[in-house]
Write a structure and sequence with these properties.
Elements: H1 4-14, H2 18-21, H3 31-40, E1 49-53, H4 58-71, E2 76-79, E3 91-93, E4 96-97, H5 100-117, H6 121-136, E5 140-144, E6 161-164, H7 172-175, H8 179-186, E7 196-198, H9 206-215, E8 220-222, H10 240-255, H11 261-264, H12 270-274, E9 281-284, E10 288-291, H13 297-309, E11 315-319, H14 327-331, E12 339-342, H15 353-362, E13 366-369, H16 373-383, E14 389-393, H17 396-407
Parallel strand pairs: 1-5, 1-6, 2-5, 6-7, 7-8, 10-14, 11-12, 11-14, 12-13
Antiparallel strand pairs: 2-3, 3-4, 9-10
Length: 408
């Protein structure tokens, strides 16, 4: 394997990837990750980190924190998942993706270990990120949890600060069927003596987090109780206001008096500084085309009012979903006055269109189905007039396909 494409294709084809396969690829537990990083020389112990979990908003919050730290003059590693277009999006320093050659060398050097120890795709990418950040001697690393928290591969870090954005009913097949159960799993990132910020105070989860903080003898702060100054933000989704509050609270906890007006400019330069994409991203005008990775009920509760508030003649909504999502709850929220274009993203976890068709009938939506996401988007674009709005979402992988198509 001599090229980046060959290496990444090997990773995708040879190893179990949760985002493609779902439950069969989910391998919780930290033993293999601890052994892997021991073999690598404990790279995660060589840099200060901020660890971020949550159901919605953890990616945006991670990018906001990284952007502000960059504006404060720090070298900032950022690990997030999944990627949208290129594998290397997962690992960045000051917004610049990991070099292709580092990925090639890392995989070639440790390929035998990966196979012998049967590491998951996610464990490999986390270890790769830690090794890269250590080699580049970052000042901070912002580490986003992949799934859950307690048993997530990232949970071997001993961070300066733990952040949990919010709790919703997502990935219930792994994390529990109640908000309290899911909070206990995500709260597993709370560690002894390490302060924790909770983005959203929820009646069902508040006591869980307070008890975990008490057990770990650490301080707990709810971002909703913090007064946030007027801060300009370059991310357009209304749901980002909650994430902004969480990020500000975390940064104030982390930086104290160093969180000055100069650093806060980072909130207005998140896309520029970190390369964040797919969050209420404007892909075109006349008609207005919005790509957004919102993929569960809690997300759509916030997205739909913003969509309905836009000035437009007609609303066109392109959607596709993956397994593990309570899509009937999403369909119950969808506006009846929109035209829908439904398809399945090109991954094995996708929900086939024929499984969605009964919901079209149940909720009496004006909907058409298509073989691919690109066909659905193209159909919406042809049907829409200049004064209309097209929204593309339902899954990270739907947005990934439209971004990849536009990148060609």
């Amino acid at each position: 394997m001599n090229s980046f494409e060959e290496v990444t294709q090997w990773l995708f084809s040879q190893l179990p990837i949760f985002q493609q396969q779902g439950a069969s690829a989910y391998k919780p537990g930290l033993d293999k990750m601890l052994a892997f990083t021991e073999m690598l020389g404990q790279p995660h112990s060589s840099f200060p980190s901020i660890h971020i979990a949550g159901t919605n908003g953890k990616g945006s919050t991670s990018h906001m924190i990284a952007s502000v730290l960059q504006e404060n003059g720090y070298s900032v590693g950022l690990y997030t998942s999944p990627h949208l277009v290129r594998f290397s999006e997962r690992i960045r320093i000051n917004g610049v993706e990991v070099e292709d050659q580092f990925v090639i060398d890392f995989v070639r050097q440790h390929q035998h270990y990966f196979l012998t120890e049967q590491l998951s795709f996610f464990e490999i990418t986390v270890g790769m990120a830690f090794a890269y950040f250590a080699e580049k001697e970052v000042d901070y690393a912002v580490i986003e949890v992949g799934l859950g928290g307690r048993l997530d591969a990232t949970n071997i870090v001993s961070p300066l600060l733990s952040v949990i954005t919010n709790i919703g009913l997502d990935h219930t097949e792994f994390l529990g069927t109640s908000l309290a159960e899911i909070a206990a799993e995500k709260g597993g990132i709370i560690k002894t003596g390490i302060p924790v910020v909770i983005g959203k105070k929820q009646a069902e989860t508040k006591a869980i987090f307070e008890e975990l903080a008490k057990q770990q003898r650490t301080t707990l702060c709810f971002a909703e109780e913090v007064n946030v100054p007027s801060i300009s933000l370059d991310l357009l989704g209304h749901y980002q206001e909650e994430n902004k509050r969480t990020a500000f609270t975390a940064l104030r906890q982390l930086l104290g008096d160093q969180l000055d007006e100069r650093a806060l400019v980072g909130f207005s330069k998140v896309v520029q500084n970190t390369g964040l994409r797919g969050r209420w991203e404007i892909m075109g005008n006349a008609p207005l085309i919005i790509a957004d990775v919102t993929h569960n009920k809690d997300g759509f509760v916030q997205v739909i009012p913003q969509l309905e508030s836009l000035e437009k003649a007609k609303l066109h909504i392109v959607l596709g979903f993956v397994q593990g999502k309570a899509i009937e709850e999403i369909f119950a929220l969808l506006p009846k006055n929109a035209t829908y274009y439904l398809s399945a993203p090109d991954i094995s976890r996708a929900i086939p269109v024929n499984k969605i068709e009964p919901l079209i009938e149940t909720y009496r939506l004006n909907a058409m189905t298509y073989t691919t996401v690109i066909e659905a988007v193209n159909a919406a674009t042809v049907a829409a007039q200049e004064e209309d709005v097209i929204y593309v979402g339902g899954s990270t992988f739907v947005v990934a396909e439209i971004l990849s198509e536009r990148a060609l």
